[in-house]
Amino acid sequence: MRERGMTRRRVLGIGGALGLTAATGLSTAAALARRPSITGAELRSAVPLPPPFQAPLPIPSVLKPVSTTGGADRYEITQREASAEILPGVKTPLWTYEGAFPGPTIESRRGRPVTVTHRNELPVPTVVHLHGGRTPAASDGYPTDLVLPQGWHDATMHTGHGMQGMHDPRALVTKLTRAYTFPLDQRPTLLWYHDHRMDFTAPAIWRGLAGMHIVRDDAEDALGLPAGPRELPLMIADRAFAADGTLVYPSLDPTLRVRPGVREPYFAGVLGDVILVNGAPWPVHEADAARYRLRILNASNARHYELEAVTDDGRRLGLVQIGADQGLLATPVTHQSLPIAPAERYDVVVDFSGVPVGSLVRMVNQLGSGRTRDVMAFRIARGATDDSRVPRTLSTDLPAWRRPDAVRVRDFAFRAGQMHGGHGWLIGGLPFDPARSDVAARLGDVEVWRVVADVHHPVHLHLVGFRVLSRGGRPPLPHDAGLKDTVSLRPGEAVEIITRFDGYRGRYLFHCHNAEHEDMGMMANLEII
Ligand code: C2O
Ligand code: CU
Ligand code: CU
Questions:
Q1: For each of the chain's 529 residues, which pLDDT tens digit applies?
Q2: Collapsing DSSP states into helix, strand and coil, what is residue 327?
């Protein structure tokens, strides 16, 4: 309890001292009155920021396979430094997949295997994880399964504070390239791939190592949902820019080679003051007056959003949720306001047909303040016919696990604490250690997990999807519907989830997806036996 109080005071105090957002926007709900709405501290950009809704919304290009023979698709991605004009007239150096941020989108079919060969031309080791993928352990991107760049000396990463001298004998380390194989035998949904290197995931994602991966199937295609140019993947991420156009990030070691971690005010999470969607600041998209399917991913390190679609005359359009992290819901759920935590995905249909041509629909973040309230906008450019629909029944294959199916109940506390004599984020009182076994679950077992948080912690499990059973001792909230792989714990809250450990045996992870928390210890081993 003492730790928790300290953490909150620190978060609030820092927000106040820097005049930033941590202390603002407290929920008006009595139950949440003493809980900060944001966990983290905001960086300030030193370049002039463009006005909102000028940059056109980029759509990341879809990667072309190098071969499609033998019942599988093969892709190649080079990880390399590149520079992009994110802000008008400003060059920003990035770490990229294939020269682009976001990286290229991979489009795939359920059950059709995909192999992606990554080549690491960055100055540091990397690891690729396909978030939400049902992936054999060898291709899941365990944080020590490094792909070393040319000329990297192993000793570098075992000195100083890097990896605390830990050596992981089970690590599968490769030089320069690695082929990741994804069977994609799973429900269709929006996945994303991102870096997952031990201790350095947060700054690597921040520099640009994130891309989207869509899985489809015939059943979903047959539903008649908005498609083609009316289906938009939206990767939302906040960043901040230094005077010279580089991305600012408070790393203790800006080379990201040796010493992990961030400077003290940012322990709770790094927030930027620029909101990017698909890599463009506060973009605008010219839309038909018709239904759109928005496939929203919060790829921010620590920022939470509560999205609303607001018209020029102040009307909020319904956000009709059709899918969660792990695919379609059974039936649509309409939100006026949609909370979305780091790494969560929401599949949403919004109908612009009643919006006057020429006017704007702004996507607003109710948790933001000042410039971070705006996310993006749609300019309704033309009237249009629309033969799309949102069926009442979206899917019938959601797992229906019940409490009595569970052979075990496990409890995990996600809390601040001490790690190696400094500040850390812990699960069950312990910081991540690749050598320790935290959970050994039997393949095929159903389990209930009770997770409890001090501040905000978006809790993510690799390999499996789960359902939310309860939140704060009550039934789940409307946006907890469906099959998820990341659940947002609010300050002081306990959540119960249920899952079946299905798929593959081997070494996986569960962790907080506040990327700074993840790097500072809040990760644990999930071994499927
Ligand atoms: Cu996006 Cu281990 O996660
Ligand atoms: Cu994951
Ligand atoms: Cu966390």
A1: 233 333 333 333 333 222 222 333 333 333 344 456 789 999 999 999 999 999 999 999 999 999 999 999 999 999 999 999 999 999 999 999 999 999 999 999 999 999 999 999 999 999 999 999 999 999 999 999 999 999 998 654 544 444 444 679 999 999 999 999 999 999 999 999 999 999 999 999 999 999 999 999 999 999 999 999 999 999 999 999 999 999 999 999 999 999 999 999 999 999 999 999 999 999 999 999 999 999 999 999 999 999 999 999 999 999 999 999 999 999 999 999 999 999 999 999 999 999 999 999 999 999 999 999 999 999 999 999 999 999 999 999 999 999 999 999 999 999 999 998 889 999 999 999 999 999 999 999 999 999 999 999 999 999 999 999 999 999 999 999 999 999 999 999 999 999 999 999 999 999 999 999 999 999 999 999 9
A2: strand
179: nearest Cα among 290, 284, 323, 77: 77
Q: Which ligand is nearest to the CA of 345?
A: 1
Quote the ligand 3 centre to 527 CA distance (angstroms): 21
Report whether residue 524 contacts ligand 1, using a CB cutoff of 6 Å. Answer: no
- CB-based contact 162:258 (threshold 8 Å): yes
Q: Is the CB of 129 under 6 A from ligand 1?
A: yes
String of DSSP letters for 484-516: BSEEEEPTT-EEEEEEE--S--EEEEEEE-SHH
Nearest ligand for residue 512 CA: 3
Answer yes or no: is the C-beta of 131 below 6 A from any ligand 1 atom: yes
Ligand 2 centroid to Cα of residue 469, in Å, is 21
- Tokens 């250690």 sit on residue: 433
Please tell me the distance from the alpha carbon of residue 507 to that of residue 124, in angstroms, as a whole number. 24
**What separation in Å is there between the alpha carbon of 16 and the centre of ligand 2?**
33
Residues with CB under 5 A from ligand 2 (ion): 131, 462
Domains of the chain by range and CATH? 11-38+398-528 (2.60.40.420), 73-221 (2.60.40.420), 228-382 (2.60.40.420)
Q: What are 447's two structure tokens?
A: 């389990």
Q: What does the alpha-carbon distance between residue 50 and residue 118 come to, in Å, rounded to a whole number?
A: 35
Nearest CA residue ID for atom 3, ligand 1: 131
Q: What distance separates the 2 farthest-apart alpha carbons in the chain?
A: 63
